[in-house]
Design brief:
Order of helices and strands of chain B: EEEEEHH
Radius of gyration of chain A: 21 Å
Order of helices and strands of chain A: HHEHEHHEHEHEHEHEHHEHEHEEEEHHHH
Number of strands of chain A: 13
Strand content of chain B: 25-35%
Shape of chain A: globular
CATH class of chain A: Alpha Beta
Number of helices of chain A: 17
Number of strands of chain B: 5
CATH topology of chain B: SH3 type barrels
Structural class of chain B: alpha+beta
Largest sheet of chain A: 5 strands, parallel
Distance between the termini of chain A: 9 Å
CATH architecture of chain B: Roll
Radius of gyration of chain B: 12 Å
Largest sheet of chain B: 5 strands, antiparallel
Shape of chain B: globular
CATH superfamily of chain A: HypD, alpha/beta domain 1
CATH class of chain B: Mainly Beta
Oligomer: heterodimer
């Protein structure tokens, strides 16, 4: 039972589970969305679902940056990598994501200069070290990573480093939540709010979900106890007929967010009028582009981008899974044509994608808190 | 990519004051402090690092908790790989790995 020894405060976890069972009205079915892919991963890894009564259902949200990126953007980015003396740099998470003609890793195998970086600052360093080449950083992520890309662009401009650019795919979480709430086939009772996005944006941007939509939001940490406590807080609000924004992850998330990070984003980025999300379609003002004042470092302003649009493979139901309408295992390809080793859809690539999380932890059913604590 | 990695500030770079050497369980790398410029951390402070940038100051106890969380999530190895990867082919020597103190 090694797994269980690693959990801190198992007695508190058991208590939180009890509290959830007490708070959940047996005549009601609760649908709670965890927005962030990190939470999805944790929920599957720890088998938290098994600690919840059957009428408390967790719906997996769109908070996995790799998963929501439409294939056309990957194709666009990779098409630029065909230029001579060109380095395509991206985070490791991107490397196995399939484009129409292969993943970045497959492009590398075909002789393109594709590099993994762990920080946008290192993509800038690549440009510094390779003055005869152009380095393009393929940027993805929500507000957690966008400030780092922004600051990297500020540094590039200050240095006057001309052989560097960013292909910007940064997206913002609030419009995605709005799109999900507006979607007619979706009924939700509350949200487990993202932890690390909220270190940047703070808790205020969720106010409208509580005030206008009447749904509680609890910003949560990533440990089993954090997530269970957040569910307790949500159920307590629902029992009392309340809808407010609460912060369970106070030890890391300040209510006001990180102002310096927000300033860096505002300096470099502006909202795109619309952006395509895999599964959710076009959402207005849901993504960031680089301002004209940084146009020299924007791959889309600097190069001709084909603007490829690709519909996802018909059989794959990534969109329905992303919206929470289907569970991963309900997709026709799940576990057969589409596995973490041979992914068809992006949700199977990233460890934060609900399909990969479900495949690794649910499909293979490891020891979970629920069945372990009984020993 | 969305990993939040705890590290302790060892020294601020004398030439580029937005850069600091941080120690993550014995691995030392340069990270950017620019996103904390409203309340710049000093040597000895603990920070959470995302993609090579310090994003928030945290307490030592929370840093230990965060490392524990990464271990529980099965992400500790990925986090260390990320930290080792900062700075490309770094010339900074790794220190012998230490056990995380609870």
């Amino acid at each position: 039972m090694k797994f269980v020894d690693e959990f801190r405060a198992p007695e508190l976890i058991a208590k939180a589970g009890e509290e959830i069972r007490k708070l959940a009205d047996p005549h009601r079915h609760y649908r709670i969305m965890e927005v962030c892919g990190g939470h999805t991963h944790a929920i599957y890894r720890f088998g938290l679902k098994d600690l919840l009564p059957h009428n408390v259902e967790l719906i997996h949200g769109p908070g996995c940056p790799v998963c929501v990126l439409p294939m056309g953007r990957i194709d666009d980015g990779l098409s630029l990598a065909a230029q001579p003396d060109f380095i395509f740099a991206a985070f490791g998470d991107m490397m196995r994501v399939p484009g129409t003609h292969g993943s970045p890793l497959e492009y590398k195998a075909r002789g393109r200069d594709v590099r993994i970086v762990y920080s946008p600052a290192d993509a800038l360093k690549l440009a510094r070290n390779n003055p005869e080449k152009h380095v393009m950083f393929f940027a993805i992520g929500f507000e957690t990573t966008a400030p780092s890309t922004a600051l990297t662009l500020v540094r590039a401009k200050v240095e006057g480093l001309n052989n560097f650019s960013v292909f910007c795919n940064h997206v913002t979480i609030i419009p995605a939540i709005r799109a999900i709430l507006d979607s007619p086939d979706m009924r939700l009772d509350g949200f487990v709010g993202p932890g690390h996005v909220s270190t940047v944006i703070g808790c205020r941007p969720y106010d409208w979900i509580a005030k206008d939509e009447g749904k509680p939001v609890v910003v949560s940490g990533f440990e089993p106890l954090d997530i269970l406590q957040s569910i307790v807080m949500l159920l307590r609000q629902l029992r009392n007929g309340e809808a407010k924004v609460e912060n369970q992850y106070k030890r890391v998330v300040p209510w006001e967010g990180n102002r310096a990070a927000l300033r860096a984003m505002a300096e470099v980025f502006e909202l795109r009028p619309y952006f395509e999300w895999r599964g959710l379609g076009f959402i207005s003002q849901s993504a960031l582009r680089i301002r004209e004042s940084y146009g020299n470092w924007d791959a889309e302003q600097r190069f001709t981008v084909p603007g490829i649009r690709v519909t996802d493979p018909k059989a794959a139901q990534c969109g329905e899974v992303l919206k929470g309408v289907l569970k991963p295992a309900q997709c026709k390809l799940f576990g057969r044509e589409c596995t973490p080793e041979q992914p068809v859809g992006a949700l199977m690539v990233s460890s934060e994608g609900s399909c990969a999380a479900y495949y690794n932890y649910e499909h293979r059913k490891p020891i979970t808190i629920a069945n372990a604590t009984t020993h | 990519m969305c990993l939040a990695i705890p590290g302790r500030i060892i020294a601020i770079d004398s030439q580029n004051t937005h850069l600091a050497t941080v120690d993550v369980v014995g691995v030392r790398r340069k990270v950017d402090l620019g996103l904390l410029q409203d309340a710049p951390p000093v040597p000895g402070d603990w920070v959470l690092i995302h993609v090579g940038f310090a994003m928030s100051k945290i307490s030592e106890a929370d840093a230990a908790d965060q490392m524990q969380t990464l271990t529980m999530l099965g992400e500790a190895a990925a986090a260390m790989e990320e930290v080792r990867g900062y700075g490309l082919e770094s010339d900074i020597q790794d220190y012998p790995p230490q056990r995380w103190q609870q």
